[in-house]
Amino acid sequence: MEPAVKNKTKSTEQTDNRLKFLNAALKKNLYQPDALIEILHTAQELFGYLSRETLEYITRELKLPPSKVYGVATFYNFFSLKPKGEHTCIVCMGTACYVKGAAELLSEMEKFLNIKAGETTPDGKVSIATARCIGTCGSAPAIIYDNQVAAYQTKETVIKKLKEWL
Ligand code: FES
Asked: pTM for the full model?
């Protein structure tokens, strides 16, 4: 599974609650193997792509043969098995973040990189994705930079981060 991220600096770093949300989705679907596609969708929305660890976790939790899970994940082209860019930026578009300006942050990012959400820069450096609530609503707007949740993001912090990567 993606590693849970601990608080580094109290002001901007938050614990990553995405695994908790994936578990909630599994529970909501009563761990039914039939819910595989829905669970894969949820996992991709939460993590931006389906890593090997994520697929193994889902395989275990749904008690399915790995070949079935991998088969479904590779069959549909809306599932992505690896991050497309060297760096991934996932903008939370859940209600709390949206209200605090997530859409403006996303548009700033898209303008700066000259790509849209779901795309990767032509040099393969940065991909932008969006997610629904990632579970740190108290520190909205939140963005996940390469698996690290950053809270209270502003146009300035977003651009600063992107500049570090380019
Ligand atoms: S809405 Fe963004 S963390 Fe909940």
From this structure: 0.67
